[in-house]
Amino acid sequence: MSAACLTVGDGALYLSLAWCLPGMSLADLDATWSASRFQTETNFSLRQACENEFSSFLCDGIMVSMDTMKEPLTLEARIQAHYEELPPAEKRLGDLLLGFPGDIATYSAGELAEAAGTSRAAASRFFQRLGYKDFNEVRLQVREAKRWGSPVYLSSASRASGRGEGKSVASQSVADHLEQEIHNLTLSLEAIRPDTLRDVVDAMAGARRVHVVGFRNSRMLALYLQRQLLLLRSDVLLLPQSAQTLGEDMVDIGEGDVVVMIGMRRRVGVVTRIMEISQAQGAKVLLITDPSATQTARLATWTLTCQVRSPSLLDSYAAAMSVLNLLCSILFQRAMSEGFERLRRVETLHDELDELDAFAWLTNQPDSEE
């Protein structure tokens, strides 16, 4: 269980810890807290500190102990942990580095600040806020990640958006687009933990009902997933219904249900309320989102993060579609016999309703001359 899963209702202020180190297990948090000087000074166990609301001690103790951890938090994890509190000037730099953290190894702090449209002072405050002593400490961590061949750190914003000499704008645009799409697909799929994927598919297969939710651009992703799931199982609902309010549909969400919230960036405010209410009514929540959903992800049972960057002003949802396709494919493999039987019944109904003109082109061709 992660720290984010426990709330004040459990008798502990673990949200303070989740703010510092989202996603850490309780065992990791206990070990880190025990190694901190604050534990020595207070002689409190982790739970005692939480119950006594020593939130500042907890956060400071965890952050101080990060230097002694075997695997310090990555740059992206630190940015995501602090993202919601960043002022606009620092958030622009955070957005730049979430897409291309490897650029730190080759650019100065001033150059990164200029690329993000912010000041050097804001950049300095940004890295200190993330818990780094100075910019050199960040650069060393990133260089080590590049040395290990992490695709996250091997990419570059300049390479993804630059124009090669002697190439037409169109051909270079295609090359840039392809490079970014491959980058997005690689990061999104490699970030999925096999155990998380297994748990999600098991839950979707055994759920009483699956509710798929999406607004704005996420709506078309939600519609795609809902229609694919309907080929494999019954009781898959799309929310919100066209031109309808949500209350009538959410009243039936409860124990044994899975809510799939697709929330790509520029989310509407009701997304968090739907997730909170669904959890409170006993449902499990899968959030499919982009890297900016740091706070929203804490409300989910599972989170699958999809990269959406593109060389243009428009986000790309190719990686998100691939992740949705992967979920459906594994769900079909898990219950292949039931899935095939349902597909056969669907195809029979298509034939009886004469819905699809799959072979119309054969009958509409002019007679060939002999």
By CATH reckoning, the class of the largest domain would read: Alpha Beta
Q: What is the CATH T-level topology of the largest domain?
A: Rossmann fold
**Cα-atom radius of gyration:** 24 Å
Q: From the coordinates shown, what is the CATH architecture of the largest domain?
A: 3-Layer(aba) Sandwich
Describe the structure.
The structure is a single chain. This protein has 370 residues and is an alpha/beta fold. It folds into 3 domains: 3-68, no CATH class; 80-161, Arc Repressor Mutant, subunit A, CATH 1.10.10.10; 192-353, Rossmann fold (3-Layer(aba) Sandwich), CATH 3.40.50. The protein contains 20 helices and 5 strands. A 5-stranded parallel sheet has the order 2-1-3-4-5, with helices on both faces. Helix 1 runs parallel beside helix 5 (55-65) and helix 8 crosses helix 9 (120-129). Mean pLDDT is 76; it is low at 1-23, 51-70 and 160-164.
Short description, anyone?
The protein is of the alpha/beta class and 370 residues long.
Question: What's the structural blueprint in terms of helices and strands?
Answer:
Blueprint: H1 14-20, H2 26-34, H3 37-42, H4 46-51, H5 55-65, H6 75-82, H7 88-99, H8 109-116, H9 120-129, H10 135-147, H11 151-154, H12 157-161, H13 169-190, H14 194-206, E1 210-214, H15 218-232, E2 236-239, H16 247-250, E3 258-263, H17 270-280, E4 284-289, E5 302-305, H18 318-334, H19 336-353, H20 360-363
Parallel strand pairs: 1-2, 1-3, 3-4, 4-5
Helix pairs in contact: 1-5, 7-8, 7-9, 8-9, 13-18, 14-18, 15-18
InterPro entries: Homeodomain-like_sf, HTH_RpiR, RpiR-like, RpiR-like_SIS, SIS_dom, SIS_dom_sf, WH-like_DNA-bd_sf
Keywords: DNA-binding, Transcription, Transcription regulation
Domain HTH rpiR-type: 73-149
